[in-house]
Amino acid sequence: MPVLAFISPHPPPHSLALDATTDIGLHYAVTLRHWRALWEERKDEVLALGYSDRFWRKYQFYFAYCEAGFDYRYIHNFHVVWSKHEPQAVVARAAGPSEHRAISAGTEAIRSVMQSEMPDDPVTQVLLAAYFFLSGLLVHSHPLMWLLPTVTLACAAAHHATHQASRALLPFYRQLSPEKQAWWCADVAHLVFSCSASLASLLYIVSSPASMLPWRQESVGAPCSTNAMPCAIACASAGFFAFNLWLSVRYHLYTQTLRPVMHFTLLLALFVVAAYKGVSVPLLSASLLGELSNVPYIIGKLSTLAGVTSQSLTTNAELLMLAVTMSVHGAITVLVLAYPAAFGNVAYYCVALLGMTYCNGTHWFRARQLLQAQAHAHATAKQHTPAKQHAE
Question: CA angle, corner 238, sides to 286 and 139, nearest 5?
């Protein structure tokens, strides 16, 4: 099977020239979708031929996995047009180095698009392959898990749009390093998510306060229709965490610290398991009210990147939001500790404890950092004040 990335950079050993290439992968995704629908519709006929249910499920998964790969352009299907140009090809080959001109100008454009779309980092490629593999499994067996890849794709599109808009409208953005540009776009997406998630969590708590109580929650594995809103919140949040995990690896944001990778890996695992298994999803969705504390923190980061100093204002706002967050998370932790039977399984209970311990520890550590920074700023200001008075 010819691979465009390998054949396009090299002059052909014949009189053919590459005239046009078209990526028909999105169309092929539609074809695979029809194949899968027909395969599912005629399942009884396949089994009647003597094939096992395991064989049928393998091909069902194959169709779904390939469809997702073409839909999200992780894999491609190119239609290639070669044309015979004997006079031009002969002249080009006689000219030595100029034989590369026999390849049409469109080839380089296609190759550059492929290189920009397909990450060359093997770690990123493995993560993407694993993500699409697991997403294919989850989407098929959960009514709301389609939100996971959908939100990830929406975040990626928003990240690209933010980059283009910032480069066109913000002069300071063009002066930032690629790493800081990636952080800026990621923080803008995170700011939108934090506002949306905390608002959705607050609306859910206000509309169904009784569902927060462990003894009032549905049993483990309950259908998503009974917990539609918290399930949707959890699945959408997992999609955002997956996007941030990919972003941290794609742009090598882990070079200074591995904390972002570890942070989003833990959150992704926690939310996917809870939503997929139906384990205490209301409590998990309520915990997203803690995203409130991220709003002033992210605004402060964006202000610093933009060269605007508003440290005192954002610090006070963040401390206030942290107090609210720690109160909510503290109450949830008490409920988790008091009613382990609500989780139905020791492993799920341990995962919930791990998640709440991590969240509470993170918030206490951040609050301690802010208070220490405030104390240092006040001490520095007091030292400068007598010096000014003495000078006067």
Answer: 120
